[in-house]
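[Q] Does anyone have a clean structure-token version of this?
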Amino acid sequence: MNPQNESQSQSQSTNDPQHHVRHIQHMLDEVLNHCRSDSVKVSEPKAQALFETTAEVLLGLRTAYEHYATRAESAMTPQKQQQR
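[A] Here you go.
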């Protein structure tokens, strides 16, 4: 692939919201799994609760991103901007 085509491809992917949604979903999954893993590694109940709460909040965010990606919620469906 020549540099001009590669640049165009990168530009198209960075303009595509689905590209960013997938990337953020991946990051949320990583942090969520890390929190769940750490919650069983520590013995302090408050730290365990903090990590589990964090994991639950991230799971909610992950679900919101999934709904956007699959257009499962009408509120998450992108709308065309109206011209004024």
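[Q] Thanks! Anything notable?
[A] The radius of gyration is 18 Å.
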